[in-house]
Amino acid sequence: MGGDFYYARRTDQKVVLEREFLDRLIEANAMVTVKHDHRNEAGITLVETAMAAFLLLVGSLGMIGLIFGSIATNNRSKLESTQTMLGTSIIEQINSTIIGSGQSTITDCNGTSHTIESVSGAGANLSGSDIDFSENIAAVSAKDHYHMDYTVRTPCTSTGTFQGVYDVRWRVDILADGVTTTNTYVITIGSRLQNHSEGNRFFSKPVTIRVMSGN
Predict the structure, then answer these.
(1) Considering only Cβ atoms within 10 Å of each terminal Cβ, which end of the chain, N or C, has fewer?
(2) CB distance 209 to 186 below 8 Å
(3) CA–CA separation, 15 vs 153, rounded Å?
(4) What mean pLDDT, rounded, does the chain reach?
(5) Of the candidates 97, 103, 85, 93, which has an alpha carbon nearest to the alpha carbon of residue 164?
(6) What gap in Å lies between CA 80 and CA 205, rounded to an integer?
(7) How far is 81 from 77, CA to CA, in rounded Å?
């Protein structure tokens, strides 16, 4: 009886030891698996962070492009408005006199006075229906009163912030069909900012205004 009991006990101990060994092996494998999972999670987090940084960079560059475009558009609009304003001022000055023979003056922000003539058939050359800015009009003394270099400052005083000098030219022609002479005149005025490129993102093309007016 005693011997049988002893061998049975030895067999149970072996089973127990094997189970303990298997349990520890399973636990070790589980720990390794957990460590691998943590490493995988850390790798995924790094990739996600890199992608987020990339998307943020792309978005920032897009915003910079929009801001740059807005500044360019604002500058072009400002120049076009100033050129149109100067052309309208010449029309008002000519209309305030007897067109065809009258004379008036306009003063720029430097305090310089410019004489405006309105004799028919005289003035700046045309290129099609626009003022021809390639003409060296300053070299023709007969056209001294058909162009001006108008200085713009903000505010419009001699101490204001300098904005630019605008080349403004005009021409007056009587409307006729070769037989009948009328009292209606075609006034063409062109204006552009001096010493700058034209027709790009920042600087507009010269503005030409054509109106009909009469005495």
Answers:
(1) N
(2) no
(3) 102
(4) 83
(5) 85
(6) 8
(7) 6
pLDDT tens across 115-168, in order?
Answer: 999 999 899 999 999 999 999 999 999 999 999 999 999 999 999 999 999 999
7's tokens: 């061998």
> Rounded distance, CA 117 to CA 36, Å?
90
SS3 at position 17: helix
First-to-last alpha carbon distance for the chain, in angstroms, is: 145
Q: Token pair of 162, please?
A: 């300098």
Please answer whether residues 191 and 206 qualify as being in contact, where contact means their C-beta atoms are separated by less than 8 angstroms. yes
- Phi-psi region at 103: left, alpha or beta (left = phi > 0; alpha = psi -120 to 50): beta
CA dihedral 142, 146, 147, 151 (to 10 degrees): 120
Give me the amino acid identity at 39.
R
